[in-house]
Design goal:
CATH architecture: 3-Layer(aba) Sandwich
Number of helices: 4
Number of domains: 1
CATH class: Alpha Beta
Distance between the termini: 19 Å
Strand content: 15-25%
CATH superfamily: Vaccinia Virus protein VP39
Strand order of the largest sheet: 3-2-1-4-5
Largest sheet: 5 strands, parallel
CATH topology: Rossmann fold
C-alpha cells in the first residue's frame, strides 16, 4: 500500500527507529509471516504502518504496541476506523502481553525492532511463552 498519505515523521535515534519503505521487501516480510484471517497478531513498533496495512488486511484484526506517541495520530488516521485495530501506547519492554489474551487463540508477535531492544524484548516475551505461537522480528 503506497504511503504517500502518511505525514512525514523523522526517525528518532533515541527510539532506534528505522522505517520500512520498500514495498517489495514489505511484501516478502508479510508473506513470510503468513498472517491468516482470525489469527491474533500483535505488532511491536508499527511505526508508520508499513507492515500494519497488509497484516491487518490479511488477518482481519491487529493489536499494535507503539512507544512513540507522535506516531499514534498517523496510525489512527490510517487504521483507526477499523474496529479490529487496537493501539496500545506503551513500552513493549514493560507491556503486559497477557492483557491481550482474551480468548483461546495464541498470540503471533511481529515487528521491525530497533537493534538495541531486540534481546531484552525477546527475554521479556519469553515470560509469556505459553500464550505465544510464534515471533517474527526484523
Amino acid at each position: 500500500m503506497p504511503q504517500t498519505d502518511v505525514p512525514y515523521h523523522k526517525a528518532r535515534k533515541r527510539f532506534g527507529q528505522n522505517f520500512l519503505h520498500d514495498h517489495g521487501v514489505i511484501g516478502e516480510i508479510v508473506a513470510s509471516i503468513n498472517p491468516k484471517q482470525g489469527e491474533h497478531l500483535v505488532e511491536i513498533g508499527p511505526g508508520q504502518g508499513a507492515l500494519t496495512a497488509d497484516v491487518l488486511e490479511r488477518a482481519g484484526g491487529l493489536d499494535v504496541v507503539e512507544l512513540d506517541r507522535d506516531l499514534i495520530p498517523t496510525l489512527l488516521l490510517r487504521f483507526g476506523l477499523n474496529p479490529n485495530f487496537h493501539i496500545h501506547e506503551a513500552d513493549a519492554l514493560k507491556f503486559d502481553f497477557a492483557s491481550l489474551k482474551t480468548d483461546e487463540r495464541p498470540l503471533r508477535i511481529i515487528g521491525n525492532l530497533p537493534y538495541n531492544i531486540s534481546t531484552p524484548l525477546i527475554f521479556h516475551l519469553l515470560r509469556f511463552e505459553s500464550m505465544i505461537q510464534d515471533m517474527h522480528f526484523m
